[in-house]
Amino acid sequence: MLKELRLENTAAWKQRFRAPTIEWTQLAKAAPNRGLVVSNPSGADQLYAWDVPAGELRQLTRRPEGTSSGFISPDGRHVYYHDDQHGNEIGHYVRVPFEGGEPQDVTPDLPPYSSFNFTISPAGSRIGFTAAGAGGFSAWCIDVGSDGALGAPRRLYRSPKIVIGPVLSHAGEIAVMASSERTGMQHFGLLAFDGASGEKLAGLWDGPVSSIEPITFAPIAGDFRLLATTNRTGVKRPLIWNPRSSERIDLPLDELDGEVIPLDWSADANRILLSHFSQAVERLYIYDLTGKTLTRLNHPGGTYSFYELPGAYFGPGNEIFAHWQDSTHPEQLIALDDKTGVQTRVVLSAGDVPPGHGWKSITFASTDGMPIQGWLGLPDGEGPFPTILHTHGGPEAVMTEYFHAECQSWLDHGFAFLTINYRGSTTFGRKFQEAIWGDLGHWEIEDMVAARDWLVEHGIARSDQILLTGWSYGGYLTLHALGTRPDLWAGGMAGMPVADWVTMVDDSADTLKGYQVAMFGGTREQKPEQYAASSPITYAEHVKAPILIVTGRNDTRTPARPIEAYEAKLKALGKSIEVHWFETGHVRADVEETIRHQERMLRFAYRVLG
Fold first, then answer.
1. CA 377, CA 411: separation in Å to the nearest integer?
2. d(CA 67, CA 125)
3. What is the mean pLDDT of the segment spanning 591-609?
4. 272 beta partners
5. CA dist list (Å): 258 to 20, 170, 244, 264, 517
6. Domain boundary among 298, 328, 351
């Protein structure tokens, strides 16, 4: 039974959204008393200069749309970030002094660009980034003088296909990037270039169905070993490659099942911090290169990454700094002993939150028998309950046990909540992740249908009171399931969804145009039938359940015009649909805006369920 709808300003669920969290941190490796933090005490994610010994934060950015990522130079003198227009993710990289000040454009002579990657060499003498534009993807380098002066950008590499990187060696002598040009899909090989001349030095490829991705170079001058991952065995595993000598070492980790991703080198480059994923449960390990030994760290349970973004690294002294959260504790920065993994202290704390309900990992068989993992939260009382079936964004991401304020708001009101790692999710192996390539929306929906059946069969969900929700790719799956399997759902709440793959490319950022072509295995002109078959707008006439869409006017990942067309088509067909617009882009940085979105969804769910 639904509980009373709590919308007062002091409601527990609103307090959880408002709790300050430590979203991301980075140390200046050559000046470790300085660091950079992304946090939200101002009410939106912003960049903060971090006095590491004192544990004090000083706000650097005050962008109304928020700033969700940045990079500190190794000497701690400057902070870099991508400055766009109202959250549209198209703009220029800029930098500000650590002490604060006006942003300086790093690439004033380049046209505005979208970007996946930015890096600074450990010595701080060279920066690199990837810019996507009308001509595809370009990898650039910029020299940084000892006085901090910036040189002119030099293009090292250009490709019409997706490029990841560059990753720079200690002084930027070598720049390594991952290129998908050989296959056109998201199968990458490594290319190494001279960081000064742009001369190609070496390459590494594991074949047409495998992918190698660069992580980071060893932090020592003259050491050209690169940490990377390969999935040639079917799961991601770490390797070390030296582009100068061509030596390659694949770390022997046969005792671990699942995927293993390298996160960081120790300061002496003798140990590697690893993140191991097995059924969406994360554990940290240390691999000692000298002794060839693997040590499991005895850290608290929970999550140390977010959507597979690394959240742990070697800190000063004998500590590992780790971003920790679980289903009832918001993200904070803790210190672990670098030998045992035992927590030693809280470095940067999160705000206090009201008690919540924990998550339980569950597994069920999809319609073809494929095992699918998910996280289940149950409210107080006995089921069956009205239920929220949630799908994460990406799709190349993984839902681990993390603090999900939206989930807790549903649980507070008497809903059960299940979020699933559908096919296409990462960390479950290459076959699982690539099952959706070229046929978006097929196997994901099958997995959602199987999740629904499992919820009903186990007495958790009322069969006529299951609502769908998700953001970004999860919003797309919400709309697609409502049109392709219309009899199964009571309603759907889609945040920033894809409504039409055919037309969205016209207004997408160039990074996303390249990504879309890779996922479909061709352009819309090359694969018109598949683009249409994967688009929710194709099935508009079949929709039966009410729909709520919440989306941004300035979004270049899921642009506005296809959503407007979807809304108009459903209304012309007499369907129940409402669209709420906000004025920024794809990243929701404003806390109060997020609370308003969740309140709209709660009101919608209560109205739909009567």
1. 7
2. 25
3. 95
4. 265, 287
5. 33, 31, 31, 19, 28
6. 351
Please give the helix or strand (H or E) that residue 272 lies within, else none. Answer: strand 271-278
- CATH number of the CATH domain containing 340: 2.120.10.30
β-strand partners of 35: 27, 50
pLDDT 10s digits, 498-511? 999 999 988 887 77
CA distances, 215 to each of 163, 186, 263, 289, 467 (Å): 14, 16, 7, 17, 39
Residue carrying the six token digits 């005050």: 62
What's the mean pLDDT in 25-51?
A: 94
Predicted TM-score (pTM) of this structure: 0.94
Amino acid 86: pLDDT: 83
Per the CB < 8 A criterion, the answer to whether 480 and 538 are in contact is no
**Residue entry with tokens 């046929």:** 439
| Cβ-based neighbours of 239, under 8 Å, separated by 6 or more | 212, 227, 228, 229, 230, 248, 249, 250, 251
Question: For the ranges 99-113, 245-259, 551-565, which has the lowest average pLDDT?
Answer: 551-565
* 314 and 413 share one domain: no
DSSP per position, 582-594: ESS-SS--BHHHH
Task: Answer whether 551's CB lies under 8 Å from 502's CB.
Answer: no
Q: Are strands 259-265 and 271-278 parallel, antiparallel or unpaired?
A: antiparallel
What is the pLDDT averaged over residues 154-179?
A: 92
Q: How many domains does the chain divide into?
A: 2
Does one domain contain both 333 and 384? no
Distances (CA, A) of 527 to 57, 488, 499, 522, 593: 50, 30, 17, 6, 38
> Is 55 contained in some domain?
no
Range of the domain at 450: 359-609
Ranges assigned E (strand) in 280-358: 281-288, 293-296, 305-306, 309-310, 312-314, 319-326, 329-337, 343-348
pLDDT tens, position by position, 363-381: 999 999 999 999 999 999 9
Q: Find, among 255, 256, 273, 257, the residue nearest to 341 by Cα.
A: 273
The label of the residue with tokens 């490029």 reads: 163
| Local structure of 252: helix, strand or coil | coil
**The pLDDT of residue 308 is above 60:** no
Supply 153's token pair.
């950008």
Residue 231 pLDDT greater than 60, yes or no:
yes
CA distances from 421 to 186, 192, 392, 439 (A): 20, 34, 8, 17
Choosing from 285, 316, 351, the residue where a domain stops is: 351
Classify residue 165 by burial, with Cβ atoms within 10 Å: 0-12, 13-18, 19+. Answer: buried
Q: What is the widest separation between alpha-carbon atoms in the chain?
A: 69
Neighbour count for residue 106 (Cβ, 10 Å)? 23
Write down the mean pLDDT value for the chain.
93
Q: Is 447 in a helix, a strand, or coil?
A: helix
Closest by CA to 242, choosing from 226, 227, 222, 262, is 226
Closest CA to 426 of 586, 265, 306: 306
